[in-house]
Write a structure and sequence with these properties.
It is a single chain. The chain is of the alpha/beta class. The protein has seven domains: 6-102 and 151-186 and 224-276, no CATH class; 107-144, no CATH class; 321-572, no CATH class; 578-619; 670-825, 3-Layer(aba) Sandwich (Rossmann fold), CATH 3.40.50; 831-914, no CATH class; 922-997, Winged helix-like DNA-binding domain superfamily/Winged helix DNA-binding domain (Arc Repressor Mutant, subunit A, Orthogonal Bundle). The chain contains 35 helices and 17 strands. The strands form six sheets. Strands 9-10-11-8-12 form a five-stranded parallel beta sheet, sandwiched between helices. Helix 2 (20-47) packs across helix 4 and helix 23 packs parallel to helix 24 (780-791). Keywords: Coiled coil. Residues 206-215 have a biased composition (Basic and acidic residues). InterPro entries: P-loop_NTPase (IPR027417). Residues 191-218 are annotated as: Disordered.
Amino acid sequence: MNKNYPSVAEYLHKQIEEKFTVKTAEFRTEFRSELLNWFQTTYKEILSIKKDDELRNKRVVDTLNKNISDLKNVIENYGKNQWSDHWNTLINDLTEELPETVVEYQSEDRFEAKEEDSFRLKSLKSLKRGLRIVSAPFKKDKKGWKQVIQLRKSIRLKLTGLSGLPEDLLAEEFKVMADALAKLLEKEPEKKIEKEEGGNSSAEGEGNKDSKPPKANEQNAGFKFQVLEKIETHLQEAISILKNVEPEDSVLQIVMDECYDIAVKSGTVEENRKLLEPDYYEAKLASKKVTLQKSQKDWLIYLKSQYSDFAIQIEIARFAFLADNAKGEILNFTHRFFRDYCYLPLEKGVTKIKEIAGRLKEQKSEKLSSKLVEELRSDIWEELSEKLMNEMTGDENQRHIINQIQKTITDLQLGFYNFTDQFTLAEKRSIEGNKPQVTTDTVSWKKLATRYVQENALRDMDPEKREWETFLKEIISETEEAIQIVDVNLLTAKESEKDKEEDQSVLEIAISGAERAINQLEAAIKKVRERQNSYENVVKVKFPGAIQTLAETMLARSYTELELQDKALQVKAKAYSWQERGERIYYKILEKGELLRRFAVLKLKEVRKFAAKYLGISEGGAAVSTTEKRNLAEYLAQVDVHLNFPFVYKRLFSSDFDIDDRFYTPPVGLYTLFEQSYEDWTLNIDTNFLVVGERGSGKTLALNVLKQKFLKDQKINTVHFDQTIYTEKELLKLFCDAFGFENTENRDELIQKIKRKKKRSILVVEDIQNTFVRNIHGFEAIESFWVIMTSTRDQLFWMVTCSAFAWNYFIKVFSADQYFSHTVQTDKLDREAIEKSILSRHKATGYELKFEAGAATQKSRSYRKLMSNDKDIQTYLHDQYFSRLDKIAEGNMSIAMIFWLQSIKEFDDKYVTQLPTEIADVDKLEVPSREVLFTLSALVLHEFLTEEEVSFALHQDLSDSRLMLARLKSKGIVQNTEHGYNLNHLVYRQIVRLLKRRNIIH
């Protein structure tokens, strides 16, 4: 520094040089603290997992998965935590104690023109030198010219507004964080090689989107992921990177040089004085802040892309552990299938036939005795034809094993449900001249991953796709042939004794037949082994290899092949046949004439109506043909028949599917009202809980969810009225059985027994609509139920379910609403809830959805306007379908699911095609006479009724009830179950509407 500016040098030394390094280190420590804390916390948790723990890798992945949302939040916080604000605060603190102004003598440099000076500045310096010469004789202060230096403001302006240093330091800071995050991906960012003429780009050592992914090791049957390899070491290295906060010496030297340079020029002709004016000063600082914020935003995109890569690896790793368990189960079932139905029977067959051949070879005579032949044939019949073939044809057990494998594969597919729908990934990621360069692309990750694993492994693992049952039938057929060979050759050998000219001896004929049979069975065993090995190769090698390749492909950011595969399927799906193209042109032509056609039809109808009035023509509707009635009855009879559906689809939409939180849409108020009711009961307030809803609306499911969520550790007694009762005796027996009491004939005695119980407990009572029959003598059980429940609410927490129509009846007859403190309805789901519940199950199957328009829709103008855009058509049909389904279901999830399945047209490898929902017209099947209406209303009210109970409820002869129910059953309107007759779900909604219109139910 120039000796002419001693005060400036001293201030800079004290306030900048001595404090900058420490303050910068503190600044960096604070800025990195969140990210550092995440690494330290994660490292500590992983370090606590024992090295010899068999499940160590799974626990590591679970830990990373648990903490990854925190990492996402940390990175997103760097979008809010502005580096420029921290930098400005740092500089303001450093310069706070600097004086506003300092007066110094100007050095000779302030007068001398320099080569880099502008013409204007050179002229001003020349003028300045001339003035100095002229004024020298008159100047009292002979030391030189003074300058007033705006020290604090000039330095602040330089470091926060003019210098390029903030951009460099910001880039350095974020490069450090990028280095730390790169450790999670096991990739070191390559340092940029600076050249005099410019910088070459540095990629993060991770390749780009077009690079080829590494191939999975096909010899390795397990799963290995780079994110798990040496994770502790990489976390430790990341922590070390983030802890290094000391700035380089060159940074301090740059700061000192820039501060000194602007300070010594202050108050001279070299200074741009406008910059120190308030408006210009603030504008410069604001401009720099915008620049830094943009740079920080670019870096944030860079960090987020690193996070996305890491998150994908964790999701794949979690799925891999699920897959590893599934692989073991599938191999176990595979072993059982081929062992029990192929190897063991075939080996027994070989052993038995060898035994027969041995007995034949032991014969000393060339002839076969009739006794031996009969004995051997009897042995063949008993041991092979009957016993052995029975072992191989255990259809139910074979189907059970296949179903178990399919169930395991289904559970695997459900594992994709936990994948993130979309990720924004980096196609290319590099650092050029301290600036991050990221080209991003939004990828439908869940869809791509699901499709990739399905196409490359899961689809090939389905025993039905591999035709196991057909293969087993072939083996059984070959085994039967082998048995026949032995038997026929024994008979032939015996008959050959009569043929003197036969070249082969009797024993040779019999033994050769046995040997051919043995060869055939051994060939079958070889075929079985090849089939099993082929399948196990898919499970052991191809399946893990697909997951491994997926992980490595995504780590290398080479997801082009995934996108191309998906696009190829989309192109295939969108390829229109010539017929479809013709239809499009046809509809476009018709669309213009649609209004004219409608107008003409309307006028013709008016003319026809006018003419009919004077000509006496009847306008009654056409009669329903017998064929139409039969077709409709057959349609209604197939409510539970979906044999051609993929197993995963049948399982997820089955009423027996063990639903969990992913697929359950709770009714409004279910959780809050139950918590209030149960909490009050625990505080000795008499409360109970009622779930009301139509048949199939999820009443039992709601109770099961509540038990899982709130009552896991509680003892629960259950009474289920699964068939209709109406006497007190039947009611008391069910309650006594539930509590383990001896049977009692008196409800007061039962109440006393309950009150004497030492502990309070929970009682679940399902389907109280089945505790009465609408007859003057049919209310004994339900009346006793009200008494028992109200008398024991202090000792029992009652959780009760009831059908909606029976509940409305109870309110009118018994004022039953006074007996319950909290009530929830399960049949009030809105369209959004129904759509969400159905689509969540559908998406979990891995199939994509395609809607087809019905005949009426195809004729509509709104549909034809969209014919040129397939995406718009699907959106239109999707909305139309669920609007119609919502109106049909009226809040009942079970009805919605049944109609969803009924409207499925077909499946292919990718799509499930939906047709518009069809609603059966009950009037076409049955004229709704008075007797029919009252029978149907009884079934709506009671849900299940036997022939005797229908007769009792309707006050009619048993024979009349039998005839009525048989008639309705033959037309598909009612179904006969083990608990009695009930309504077919496909016409449940139409019947309810019909009965409401006739004012029979409310």
